[in-house]
Amino acid sequence: MSLFIFLFVLQAIVASALVGVVLMQRSEGGGLGIGGSPTGLMSARGAADFLTRATKWLAVVFVVLSIALAAIAAETSGQDSITSTLDRSAADPLGPAAGGAPPPAAPATQPVTPAGDDPLADVTE
Questions:
Q1: Which of 42, 50, 60, 87 has the lowest tally of Cβ within 10 angstroms?
Q2: Is the pTM of this model over 0.90?
């Protein structure tokens, strides 16, 4: 269970980093738009290349963590079939004609009498 929590926290961190990296990119592919020398990491092209690579690898890590978390959750759930979660105490909808249990008797209802201090009780249509 501690491995699941660790991977879950790690996935939250990777998801936050992925959102941040995507939001830093410019839609034209210019990267951060930081000036400076035309070559190198902190140029507009170098920043765009770095952010593109970071986005790719963060997305790969996010997908791998998602698959790992799903596998761990499926393994630790301990249920072999879906039918084990059905509520079997419900009444048979087909009734006694199909061999099921008879429906329970309806409780007796009492007529509702309007209260004396109710101002809307005297309204008739």
A1: 87
A2: no
